[in-house]
Write a structure and sequence with these properties.
mainly beta; five-stranded antiparallel β-sheet; three-stranded mixed β-sheet
Length: about 180
């Protein structure tokens, strides 16, 4: 195994303390809980609508959870990757790193993650969708449905590195009609 702000987001994070569920953690382990995160959502590029990227940043943990939701498959598969940065990485540095992940690489001097961990299949899942509108993309006027997708993230840990608490969220995805 290979060891991403939506203002109207409604997140239902676990109310139990992760330590009660999984026992004590070492000082090195980073606690990744969605209710403490800041969010960045990317659903379009200069060329139109695209797969959705959703970044949860954990400023006090120097960590990012990036979710990728494909709009090319009607089942809306969700994949996740956790990135851990050196503990001295600034919040501004992580913002620049996120920008470079989806745009033209505007920032040349960005921090590099010290750990990249692809979440196993089944940890991230789209469980419900709701169509909230339709939009056309120029120049060909292709029609996309604007969908609100409910995702569920299961708890996951990489021993001595991080513990990701379970949570539920809603994310927007444009899907070709």
């Amino acid at each position: 195994m290979f060891t991403f702000s939506l203002p109207n987001s409604i997140r239902a994070a676990s109310t139990l303390f992760l330590s009660l569920l999984t026992g004590p953690t070492s000082a090195k382990e980073r606690q990744l809980e969605a209710q403490t995160s800041k969010e960045v959502q990317i659903r379009h590029s200069m060329l139109g609508f695209r797969d959705t990227l959703f970044f949860y940043t954990f400023p006090d943990q120097q960590a990012v959870l990036r979710l990728h939701i494909s709009n090319k498959d009607k089942t809306l598969p969700v994949n996740g990757i956790v990135y851990l940065f050196p503990v001295n990485t600034s919040e501004e540095g992580i913002k620049k790193w996120i920008n470079n992940q989806h745009s033209d690489g505007l920032f040349p001097n960005i921090p590099s993650p010290e750990l990249i961990h692809k979440l196993p299949k089944g940890i991230c899942k789209a469980v419900a969708t709701k169509i909230i509108g339709e939009k056309k993309t120029p120049p060909d006027n292709q029609i996309f449905t604007d969908q609100e997708v409910t995702i569920v993230i299961k708890a996951h840990e990489l021993q001595d590195k991080f513990k990701l608490a379970p949570f539920k969220d809603q994310i927007g995805v444009f899907v070709p009609k």
